[in-house]
Design goal:
single chain, mainly beta, Jelly Rolls, 2 domains, eight-stranded antiparallel sheet, six-stranded antiparallel sheet, binds zinc ion
Length: 323
Amino acid sequence: MTPLYPLRFRPILRRYLWGGRRLGTHLGKPLAEGDDFAESWEVCDRGEDQSIVHAGPLAGASLADLLADRGREILGRHAPQTRFPLLFKFLDAQKTLSVQVHPDDARAARLAKPDLGKTEAWVVLEATPGSVIYAGLKRGFDRAALEREVSRGTCELCLHRFEPQPGDCIFLPAGVVHAIGQGLLVAEIQQSSDVTYRLFDWNRLGPDGRPRALHLEQALEAIDYSYGPAHPQKPQPTDRPQVERLVACEQFVLDRLTLSGPQTVGGDDRCHLLAVIEGEVAVEGEPEGTPLRRGATVLLPACLDAIELRPLAHAVLLDAYLP
Ligand SMILES: [Zn+2]
């Protein structure tokens, strides 16, 4: 059987009204004409939406195929899984997204079977001056108050907001209401679930001249009213000097590697999802002259030995994996 290797996938591009062109200009994605490129799904295994291996002996294989045929090698200690449990994407928000919330696994089992809940985290890559993130409810707003403000079209009154800086990481457990603001370019790691309840759409009209559908009842039901405001994470040091921990939760761990010299990753019987968010890095075992550039994502199968990353000058990567 073909030995596994660091897998690069073709991006799955999503075009929505709120997108732009930065997935191409800033992250190197191949874009067609148009200024509505909103999301690049980098690693995804959800029914029809499949990451496809881009190069090497396994070119053309889908992530679902790989999991079915080589699940133990891909997932290591986390095998078996019916599908790849994480989804990683980049988002270019040229307009503010709707205010939304995702249920936790228990509520999803009730409201959205068979989908799971969705906990997610964002890392801000670019922020135009004045860009904001809405994350969590201000203290003192309960369900009745939120319902009242939504019905008056003034939902924003209830939402905690702040102006993020590039590098900020925002952790959003299931049940925390959120919206990405206009001007932000973001990397997002999440549970592979698509259950989203739209609470408020800023009183906007859709392309057909009507307000877009909301999911008010489900959203109000899914919100965790005790959570309060969500602030940027405080990165924690690890025992590896170039590595800091941004998030550690039940669903995933998210580390940031700030490299000025070589760093090994993997080799721990876990699958790692690496994404370059600044600079360039050469990956051990890959052909000369094919570094990972900003916006590139690679999946390291769990069966690989630890591999060495060598920054070309300077590089910053995200490393997401199952706990
Ligand atoms: Zn979300």
